[in-house]
Amino acid sequence: MDLNPERRLAIVKRLDFVSAPFIVLSAVSLVVGTELDDASDVAWMLRQFETVLSVLFTVEYAARLYLGGRKYAFSLFGVVDLLAGIPGLLILAGSSDLMALRLLRIFRLFALLKVGRYNTAAARLGRALRSVREEFALLGATAGTVLYLSAFGIHYFEHEAQPEEFATFGDCLWWAIVSLTTVGYGDAYPTTPGGKAFASLVLLLSLGIVAAPAGLIAAALTSQRSEREEP
């Protein structure tokens, strides 16, 4: 069936209207499920209800994919809809692995992100993020390089002094991530003079790396708002 663009848009808007309450129900069911005993009758009924929701999200994705094609499939909301429908795809495929299905329920949380399609502010944020994607790619590469060097550096300075806290590259990478994000849990910290000096350098670098994304997003949003207000 060949649909003209106006008809496709009308169907998409109807899908938005119909799916909105199911997104809310999905969020509520995930919360209620944490309060129930898995062996109770209520929990069983809730699982059946969640199965229905997963299948509905899958059907919705299929409908949107038919209407939007490749452009929708590779868009932000296309990926979100796919992730939200993964449990339903497994159910339709006849999967009986209850543990796998339970773990994949986490993907249903992505359904909450679907709310963004009803908000013009979310659309403006999406345009802003796309406009600075190259800067974010460079920033991500820089952050990854700094994390890598930080992990090896702290291992060099602290491994012999603290063989348990900085035993492997993974332990050192955890310290680097915690330090670079300025969280500082305090479960591992340098004690040698060289380690402290190196950690100070890492913390100084982290201030710029953590602050840069906020500045990029703020500038991009300001640019989007200016373009919108221009006559």
Which key phrases capture this entry?
single chain; 231 residues; mainly alpha; 75% helix; extended
Counting DSSP H or I runs of 4 or more residues, the number of helices is: 8
**Beta-strand content bin:** under 5%
The mean pLDDT is 79
Structural class: mainly alpha
The general outline is: extended
**Distance linking N and C termini:** 40 Å
Q: How many E strands?
A: 0
Radius of gyration: 24 Å
Low-confidence stretches: none
Helices and strands, in order, run as HHHHHHHH
The main pleated sheet reads as: none
- The portion of residues assigned to helices is over 70%
Written description of the protein model:
The protein is 75% helix and 0% strand. It has 231 residues and is mainly alpha-helical. The protein is extended and about 70 Å long. The mean pLDDT is 79.
Task: Give the SSE map.
Layout: H1 5-33, H2 41-73, H3 76-92, H4 98-104, H5 120-131, H6 133-158, H7 169-180, H8 193-229
Give a short summary of the structure.
With 231 residues, the chain is mainly alpha-helical. It contains eight helices and no strands.
